[in-house]
Amino acid sequence: MTRSNLRSYSMLGALVLMGLVSALLTGGVFVRPDNLMNLAVQVSVNGVLAVGMTLIIMTGGIDLGVGSMLALIGVAAAKVFGLGGGAVAAIVVALAAGLLVGAWNGFFLTRLGLPPFIVTLGTMTIARGLALVMSEERALPIVNHAFYQLGNANVPRVAALAALGVMAAYGLWTHLRSANRNWLHLALTLAGLALAGWVLGDPSVEGLPMTVVIFAVVAAAGSFVLNRSRFGRHLRAIGGNASAAALSGINVRRTLFLDYALMGLLAAVAALLLASRLASGVPTAGNMAELDAIAAVVIGGTSLAGGSGTVGGTLVGAFIIGLLNNVLVLMNVQSNFQYIIKGLIIMGAVLLDVRKK
Amino acid sequence: MSLLEMAEISKEFPGVLALERVSVSAERGEVLALLGENGAGKSTLVKILSGVYPYPEYGGEIRIGGRVCRFRGTRDAVEAGVTIIHQELNLVPQFSVAENIFLGREPARRGAIDQAAMEREAAAILARMRVELDPRTPVYQLSVGQQQLVEIAKALSLQARILIMDEPTSALAQSEVLHLFDLIRNLRRDGVTIIYISHKLEEIFALADRVTVLRDGQYVGTRSVAEASRDELVSMMVGRELGELYPKAQAGLGEAVLEVEGLSAERPDRPGAFAVDGVSFQLHAGEVLGLAGLLGAGRTELALTLFGAWPGPCRGRVRIGGCEALPRSPREAIDAGLALVTEDRKLTGLVLGMGTGENVSLASLPDLSPLGVVDRRAEESLVRRYVQELRVKVSRLEQPVGTLSGGNQQKVVLAKWLATNPKVLILDEPTRGIDVGAKAEVYQIIGELAARGVAILMISSELPELLAMSDRILVMHQGRAAAVLDRVEATQERIMAYATGGV
Question: ipTM, 2 decimals?
Answer without folding.
Answer: 0.85
